[in-house]
Task: structure prediction
Amino acid sequence: MGLDPATWAIIAAASSATSAAYSIYSGEKQQQQQEKSLQMQEQANKKAEASALKQESQSQQSINKANQKQADTSAILAAAQESGGQNQTLLTGPMGVDPNQLALGKNTLLGA
Result:
């Protein structure tokens, strides 16, 4: 008892449809895995970039710490001694402020 050709045709068609469906399912699964892999790779790249930036910042901070600028105190003291010990500022000059100009009770243009 054999199967007639129409039954074989139906079985072949069903087998082809099943095979195609599995192929589609398998392709979609593979695509999902590739997308997941790409997402993981992107996350890893972002972490690596953040780590590199942090390391660069720490390196720059350590370089700055090693090359700190310091005041030249000997030059400041030498300049103060050259001026004869007079206290001075950029606003008053080497002679300071005349104490007579600080006296209260004098007439000025702003009021008396």
